[in-house]
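Revision sheet: structure tokens.
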Amino acid sequence: MYREFFIVIIEYFSNLKSGIRIYEIYIPLLISVLLLLSGEECKLDKFLSSSITLISVLVGFTIAAISILLTSNLKSIEKSRKTSIDKVDFLKRPMTLFKLILSNLFYCILIGFFILIFGAICVAFNIENTVAFIIDLFFTIHILLVIIRNLVNLFLIAYKDL
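Predicted:
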């Protein structure tokens, strides 16, 4: 079975700093758990209809961002390809700023596809329970925060001298 997508996930988690981990994992987890503990009735079908559309647009946008990043010839992007950070990639080679942003963008696409598949499964099998809602909510908030960080990083690379 094809399992190379785990490389993207491992790469993402191995390069997370603690502050980013709080922002991108613990905050969505806290929001999801608080909603679960609040006892409010969760309408998965209503959330899924808007969530699937939102994630589809964000995945398309992220693919466009990767295309721009890979085809751009801005001097700052060329510098980012040579700027090493204090990490190594999955092949134990020095990680560059460019590789870090690229791996984060690919992570966004991968998780976005997982959210879409999860939503499709919930719709196909008429799954409507609180746990499914919380899982979808967590990953939706998580991917939104990761995309925000990626956009800020792209902005800083494109418009800031390294």
